[in-house]
Amino acid sequence: MNMDIFNSYFELGLIGMAITSPEKDFIEVNSYLCEMLGYSKKELLKKKWSDLTHPEDQELNDKFQKRVLAGDINAYTLEKRLIHKDGSTIHVSISSKSSRKQDGSVSEFFSLVQDITERKRAEDEIRKSELKYRTVVENATEMIWQLDREGNFVFFNKFAEQISSMKSDEWKGRQFSPAIHPDDLEKVKNVFVDTLSGNTNEYEVRILVAEGIAELIVQTLPVYTDGEITGTLSFGRNITEEKRAERALKESEKRYRTLLNNVPIGIFRSTIAPEGGTFLSVNPALARMFGYADPQNMIRTRVSDCYQSSEDRNKFITNISHDGSVSGYEVQLKRKDGSNFWDSLSAKAVKDENNKIKYIDGVLEDITERKSIQEALRESEERYRRLLDHNPAAIVVHVDGKIVYVNKASLDLVAASSPEDALGKQILDFVHPDYREIVLERVKQCQTEEKFAKPIEEKFLRLDGKSVDVEVTAIPITYQGKPASQVVFWDITSRKQVEDSIQNNLNELNKTLKGTVDALSYAVETRDPYTAGHQKEVAKIACAVAEEMGLPEDLIEGLRVASLLHDIGKIKIPAEILSKPTLLTDIEYELIKTHPQAGHEILKTISFPWPVGKIVLQHQERMDGSGYPNNLKGDEICMEARILGVVDVVEAMCAHRPYRSSRGIEEAIEEIKQNRGRLYDATVVDACLRLFKEDKYSFASK
Predict the structure, then answer these.
(1) Hey, what domains does the chain have and what are their CATH numbers?
(2) pLDDT tens per residue, range 192-211
């Protein structure tokens, strides 16, 4: 990146930037940092970092700088307090990186400074109000536990005991959970070690419960005390049923990923063309952020391909086109491998003489970790509030049916703009009329039996009148001294839509399969016009026989397809032999006998959900081994082929051929009677005879 572009980014005014000497003197500062601290550029350049750093934070700041000067590290990130020109204190996050001379000594520091005062103030407010959330967290329908640095349990909630069927005395003093599945223990230990290094992890794990094995999705955070990591905090949601549903729908996928830590600021210049936009330049940090080996690979990517949602991209373009700049736009972006991550995007538009945007200069900060551990918990009480208010599950507490607590997810679920839209209302006001009696009964049962209510599916009514599918669980608790019910809702609209989509896809695949089978069957009939309709008639009779035998529907469907295609191998036989009006010679008959093998060769390349090729290969085999092509006997022949073999004989004898007239149904029935158990399967013959004897099937034109 050339100096012009660097200087342009330096004065973007989107984040504080400074270049300082090893002695902490300011060499260069941008206007944003000056505004942040209340000094003019001239005044600030006369200062040192030590002049601006709060005395209580000076030792921590010096500690990191000494490590850089000693050559132990090249960069560091820390949070500290700076003193504004007016004497007030601001909280900042500083990321500093050193540049070194050829002899290895530090020539200067480049620092990025972000004002986090408001975030710190919010954290203080949360600590003051945490007590009213303690009861709800203690009774949360999620497993919550804390480990010290040695992996010993120091905290776990009631639900953790319930789900694992283990009492508190079985947890305390033990490393990790005694309920973890043995095959997952090593993974849990690795996650624990990684979390102690400052990372946040989300992962799936199996635990042993009374009913067998339960699956959890767990988020593990580092616990900080006075700036040092003293253990880990985890909370897990039971996803056993969800995972089972995903597997049944063949939509299983991994839903967890490891959040990146200490990702540097990314800098870019790009166009905003309607066709997707192009990168004009990117720095190495941005390339790494998106999973590219170097900036050149990143530049060849369309800007729009980096967005998880086209709506987010369009919103950004609208805002920057209207305002000329965007600051702190939080958006989900997409890496090269397709995975998503959160970023804070700030950019300015550079316009030409006609006031049209030539390009935009911007910076990207990966805030995935900050989104996950925002309002980091320094004390156990602080954790409770975060676990509730930022829980993806919708959580509601009601006393005597009246709502007394809602979290953000529950407001989103019912399209409420603020807690006041829900607090004080009856819980039944949000329940679809079709489910209100069920809800009343579950509330009564939950309170009288005082036990966890298993998840069920219901419908909720949003404030805009729309209904939404939800999965609901409930547990009796005591809230502010009164009996209450804590209810957890999960929006399953997407899951329902996926199920509908899968069913629609299956229907379309079935239509396509039927069309393919019909086309192949037609291809045979065009080669052998004298047996036109033979395969379709055989398919009808074969399915009727299989139904008479009480065989399963899936087997019958496979038999139907195989019957429609059982003569497909005749495509490889000369047409003059197929349409010969006289009896075949021995050589011609031997050639005809190759059609099962030829059919198998054609069909084995098609991925049917049934053994169609095998059925076609065996349909001329006989129970005594006198059939062809492999002289199979008895149970060596699959049941579908035994049925097809009998039906093929009956239909062929009843049909007219150019070299003979129809022998009639009576002679066909006599044939399979006489050879019952010898050539033909006895059970199949009996079922076939019942069809014709009881008039359950008849040839309309024979």
Answers:
(1) 3-115 (3.30.450.20), 123-248 (3.30.450.20), 266-369 (3.30.450.20), 393-491 (3.30.450.20), 499-693 (1.10.3210.10)
(2) 899 999 899 998 888 877 77
